[in-house]
Structure formats: structure tokens, C-alpha cells
């Protein structure tokens, strides 16, 4: 087994993590002058080559989060090369791969309440499939891949809750916001397949993109709807509830990336002190 294959074997080939890390290694291999991850000689890398990887990824217009994911893959494959004794210990100890820092501005955005009202008001013009898809993203804050994995049986019309399969195949139940349920239930009544949305993640993004253009709405992405869901939960409840509903293993992820309440919430929090 080659080095990259050993590193990737910790995940099943069907998982998103496997595919993401393989793409990352393929990109790094090309950045370093190779063809792909499998044929690249990872054990021949030295401090000088690895030091410039982050900078070269920046020129490819990748954001900090994406670059850091690539660097995680690079660290992992080098660790495998070292443990298998292909990469000399002395060379391995010299390699330092530090994450890059962002510019302080969080990627994406949370929609304002009026924007979300506009989204809901336009859903009646869509096909039942597309309306239900956007309702799932907005009303339950699901990831794109979670939406594509939903089956008809995963929605309970009596409770208004969705059973979602998140990262690591972890199962969680998410209540859907009241005003979004009718669109999901309308689609459940007519869908003939077991899968609610038998489409790819890319197609999910295209549905949302087309929806924004056709309804003259300020552009937003599926993940922006997830951030909007998270921000609303933080506003009316607390961040621990948001963490649980979003399926985050670490509450810091919820706090630093998804909670977009801003300085107004901070000012409100100290009133009366």
C-alpha cells in the first residue's frame, strides 16, 4: 500500500471526509510538481518543500479554512511516511506545518429576518422538490450532504422533526421551524423515491443559486442558511442547543463560525450590569 492510500484508509471511500482529503492530497501533489497523491513520493519531502505549501495554496485562491484542511492532510500523510520508516526521523522532526490565520472576517453570512421572510414567501413559486429542499436547509440548518442523504421516512409529520445523518454517520433529530414544514410535507406526499432529494451536493447549490437569481434575492448559499439557522437558535435559546442541533462535536465550531449575532447581542448582554 502506498503512503497516501494508507493515510486515506482510515475512512471509507464512500465518506465525504475520504473524498475531501483525497482531493486535498491530489492538489498538494500537483502544487509540489507531482501528478497525483498516489504516485507522489511523500517520503522524499523535506522542510524546504513543505514550508511553502500554504503560500502556494493561497495563490490558488483557497480560503484559510480550506488551506488548513489541506495542511491537515499533508501532516497526516507525512506522519504515515514517518511511521512506516520511509521518511527519516531526522527529516521528519525538522518539518513544521502551521495552520494559516484568516483575515478576521468570517466566511459566509447569516440572512437578516426580512431576507428569510422573502425566501419563504417565494417558495410557493418553486417546484415541490426545490421548495422542500430549501425548506430543509432553512428550517433545520442541515448541511448539503445531510439533505441529500435524507429519506422520506426521516421526516416525521406528527412531530415535525427530521432524522439527519451527520459527520461520522452520527444520527441526530432536528425540529423543523413551523413555517417550513408545509413545504416538506407537500413533497413527502408526492415523492415516489425513498430518497427525498436524490441529487448531488453540487446540485443543491445550483438550486439555491438559481432560486436567488430568479427571485432577485441577495445571493446566499446553502451554508449561509445553516449559519442563519444557527444564529437564530443562539438568539432565542443558547449556544449549547445550537451545537446539538447543528451536530457539532466541538462547541467552539458553533461559536466561532456559525454564531453571527454580532455586536448588538454583545451590547444587549451587558445591559443592566
User: Which regions are unreliable across 5 or more consecutive residues at pLDDT < 50?
Assistant: none
Over all CA atoms, what is the radius of gyration? 22 Å
Along the chain, the helix and strand elements come as: HHHHHHHHHEEEHHHHHH
The CATH superfamily of the largest domain is known as Intergrase catalytic core
Number of domains: 2
Beta fraction: under 5%
CATH topology of the largest domain: hpI Integrase, Chain A
What's the CATH C level of the largest domain? Mainly Alpha
**Class by alpha and beta content:** mainly alpha
Shape field: globular
Provide a count of the helices.
Answer: 15
CATH architecture of the largest domain: Orthogonal Bundle
Main-sheet strand order equals: 1-2-3
Description:
The chain has 273 residues and is mainly alpha-helical. Helix content is 57%, strand content 4%. The protein has 15 helices and three strands. A hairpin with a 4-residue loop joins strand 1 and strand 2 (161-165). Helix 8 crosses helix 12, helix 12 (222-236) packs antiparallel against helix 13 (239-246) and helix 13 packs across helix 14 (251-258).
Short structural summary:
By secondary structure, the chain is mainly alpha-helical.
Strand-helix topology:
Blueprint: H1 3-8, H2 16-31, H3 47-51, H4 53-59, H5 64-83, H6 89-94, H7 113-122, H8 128-140, H9 144-149, E1 155-156, E2 161-165, E3 171-175, H10 178-190, H11 201-214, H12 222-236, H13 239-246, H14 251-258, H15 262-269
Antiparallel strand pairs: 1-2, 2-3
